[in-house]
Amino acid sequence: MKVLIVSPFRKGKLIESVVSNIENYEVVNTAPLQLCTLLKSQGYEVAYLSLQNVFRTFEKKDIDRLEEILGKYLCEVLIVHTDYYMNNANVACLYSINLIIDIVKKNRPNSKVIYCGKLTEMLGVDLLEEHLPKVDVAIRGEAEPVIKTVLEFNYERYKNECVGCLYRKGSDIYSISGTNIIEDYNKLPPIEFDFLNETILELEKIGKDIKALPISIRTSYGCPYSCRFCENTEDWHKYRKKDKRILLSEIRNLKEACNNRLQLVFISDELFTLDIEHIKEVKSVFEDNNIIVNGLFSHVSDITKEKVELLRNITKSIIFGGESSLDSVLNISNKNSSYEKIVESAKLVKSSNIAVGFEWIVGLPNMRVEDYLLDLNNIYKLIACEIVDFIEPYVFVPHPNTYFYNNCRNIGMTICGKNEDMLEEGGFSTVSYKDGLSNKQITVMYLIYRYVIEEAEKAKGHISKNMKAGCVNIEDFKDYIGEFL
């Protein structure tokens, strides 16, 4: 059986409307490659396309190129994979998923379509009823435990052997309860990376000189925290990790694949620093292979001096989800954090000569104009006084099935905008608050955050490290932004 697996693309971010031929690449996500490798080991003829890398931004004029690319694959089954873990790789892809399916169905009307990713848990039956009308089967949770049975398309077997599946039979949609979870990733074959040859070929056709396509890997899965803008799947708290044997095989596969044109740049585990013994195993593999990644994720309530010291030689930076400097906002978001912990963690990491960065969210509930001003003031001090090395702001997105999404009415939040606008980085706000800012105002505030961060970067080395925080002029601030707010 011929199977084509694709990672769909998202709408271009703001910068990509300004520079539509932007040269840097999206980091390749390995979750679809895990499924490719498993299916190959089971005897299927598998091809893979990371269309998110091929189309950093998609314009109407690109439709002919997309049709040409997909036209080469007369697959019997199309699997669309949006990742099981990252919210931002899911809802924003809905518009391109339908476009891809239409083209494949045009070339081969009888081909079957399977969806794998978070959307099945995020949207439930609505996924097939409203959003993806041409998908035959959607798998809830991680597809690997049931994918072989699903590919037989024997719906009678589904009832007994395929938990967590939505499937279409005629005009009816059936839902089998349960969620699929990979209990032990070490029982799966090590990821093969030569599946990326086709993606590289498509990039070269448009003049890209691919010398080091960036790759992010996962060494562990799951997170113990329940942030209300993030947690939305059954397996979120189920911590699993790959052992040294599997990681060593995957690193070797990566280094040898695609004529040595792949580069490991990031560890995308939700919380890499959770298990110190796991850190030691990964450190051993990386040091043996002379690998230093650009960054990895941690949590301010989890990092310790011992862990930081272990990370010194395998990563250039440690990135935390800061989200806000206001404890009231951190509390309503269930972050298990505080501004004091943010500052302490930053100083701890920098003391070991590792760069420290924070992700920040603009548009969380419980924010008034005065709160934004104080938050901006704190950000300026963090950067200008070199307590942190960088802060990356994101627009708050109410991802389906998160606490904030499910309780939007109780917190006075209205969800608006299009699915494709649900981009955390460089997108547009898709929420408005009854007693707060509108979605357009939040988008403007996001741009103000970027401006303040830029000014703080310029101030590095020119102000006292002991500059007092909290000195603001609320009247002038309201005047400056009054046109929008």
What does this molecule look like?
- With 485 residues, this protein is an alpha/beta fold.
- Among the domains are: 174 residues, Rossmann fold, CATH 3.40.50; 145 residues, no CATH class.
- Helices cover 36% and strands 17% of the residues.
- It contains 19 helices and 18 strands.
- The strands form four sheets. Strands 3-1-4-5-6-7-8 form a seven-stranded mixed beta sheet, with helices on both faces. A seven-stranded parallel beta sheet has the order 2-9-12-13-14-15-16.
- Helix 4 packs across helix 5, helix 11 packs parallel to helix 12 and helix 16 runs parallel beside helix 18.
- The mean pLDDT is 93.
Features:
Rossmann fold; 17% strand; globular
Secondary structure layout:
Layout: E1 2-7, H1 14-18, E2 28-29, H2 31-41, E3 45-50, H3 51-54, H4 63-71, E4 77-81, H5 94-107, E5 112-116, H6 119-123, H7 126-131, E6 137-139, H8 147-150, H9 155-161, E7 165-169, E8 172-175, H10 197-205, E9 213-217, E10 220-221, E11 240-241, H11 244-256, E12 262-267, H12 276-288, E13 295-298, H13 305-311, E14 317-323, H14 327-332, H15 339-350, E15 355-362, H16 369-384, E16 390-395, H17 403-406, E17 413-415, E18 431-433, H18 439-459, H19 474-481
Parallel strand pairs: 1-3, 1-4, 2-9, 4-5, 5-6, 9-12, 12-13, 13-14, 14-15, 15-16
Antiparallel strand pairs: 6-7, 7-8, 10-11, 17-18
Helix pairs in contact: 4-5, 11-12, 16-18
